[in-house]
């Protein structure tokens, strides 16, 4: 009886702690902070974090390396900083919440791997077909020296910076961040709208595909409680597009 009482007491304590954690007070202006900061950061990246800005403003000041390769690295790293690291700091320092609650965790590894393996053949076919589009061939790869001055493997490694920043911003910061105040469906659709609109100026094929991809990867983020599944799929189709263009 004594051990049962202790066990019940322990279980109650765990449940109580879990409930306390789940009911942590939210920042009263959380949704406003996320929406305003996301809008500002997207605009900053769109205007000042791209290859054109690097070529027009920064390239003359940098005397080492290949200008096209450095321009691509600048765009990828700017995405990581502005769309990834700054929102992560907002989550930690302003909202005082866990990054894991924004999908920055492994989540459900089994479902992540299973969904990736199921989607991989379709993503490879889709990437190959997309690479046949003249507009896509003109726009990609972002690093025009990929496979030339830049080894393709190194290009892929730097490309990962972009995908991490992008997926955390839309499927993590926006979607998970707005879910508790706006509901899951609305939060998912808001990130789809934002990520699709940020494609304006890109090839039409890519922009339209961003709508379906945003819905799928947003749903997977909820299903796995992580941004990892969508990010892996996004990386795969992006690398396939670049590889087909570079090596064909």
Structure description:
The chain has helices at 2-22, 30-48, 51-58, 67-94, 109-131, 134-139, 152-182, 184-197, 204-224, 228-247. The protein has 248 residues and is mostly helical. The protein has one domain. The model is unreliable at 1-23 (pLDDT under 50).
Q: How many domains would you count in the coordinates?
A: 1
The helix fraction, in percent, is over 70%
Bulk shape: globular
Instruction: Flag low-confidence runs.
Output: 1-23
**Helix/strand-derived class?**
mainly alpha
In round numbers, the mean pLDDT is: 91
Q: What is the CA–CA distance across the termini?
A: 74 Å
Helix and strand string, N-terminal first? HHHHHHHHHH
Largest sheet: none
Q: Radius of gyration, rounded?
A: 21 Å
Strand content: under 5%
Task: Quickly count the helices.
Answer: 10
Q: Write down how many β-strands occur, each being a DSSP E stretch of 2 or more residues.
A: 0
């Amino acid at each position: 009886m004594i051990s049962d009482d202790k066990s019940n007491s322990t279980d109650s304590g765990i449940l109580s702690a879990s409930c306390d954690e789940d009911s942590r007070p939210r920042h009263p202006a959380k949704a406003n902070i996320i929406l305003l900061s996301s809008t500002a950061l997207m605009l900053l990246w769109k205007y000042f974090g791209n290859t054109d800005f690097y070529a027009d403003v920064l390239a003359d000041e940098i005397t080492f390396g290949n200008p096209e390769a450095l321009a691509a690295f600048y765009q990828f790293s700017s995405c990581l900083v502005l769309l990834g690291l700054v929102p992560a700091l907002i989550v930690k320092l302003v909202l005082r919440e866990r990054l894991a609650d924004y999908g920055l965790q492994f989540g459900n590894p089994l479902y992540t791997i299973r969904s990736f393996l199921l989607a991989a053949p379709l993503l490879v076919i889709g990437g190959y077909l997309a690479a046949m589009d003249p507009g896509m061939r003109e726009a990609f790869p972002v690093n025009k020296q990929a496979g030339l001055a830049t080894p393709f493997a190194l290009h892929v490694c730097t490309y990962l910076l972009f995908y991490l920043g992008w997926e955390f911003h839309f499927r993590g910061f926006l979607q998970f961040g707005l879910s508790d105040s706006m509901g899951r469906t609305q939060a998912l659709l808001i990130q789809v709208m934002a990520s699709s609109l940020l494609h304006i100026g890109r090839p039409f094929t890519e922009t339209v595909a961003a709508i379906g991809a945003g819905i799928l990867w947003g749903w997977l983020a909820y299903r796995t409680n992580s941004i990892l599944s969508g990010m892996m799929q996004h990386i795969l189709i992006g690398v396939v597009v670049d590889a087909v263009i570079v090596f064909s």
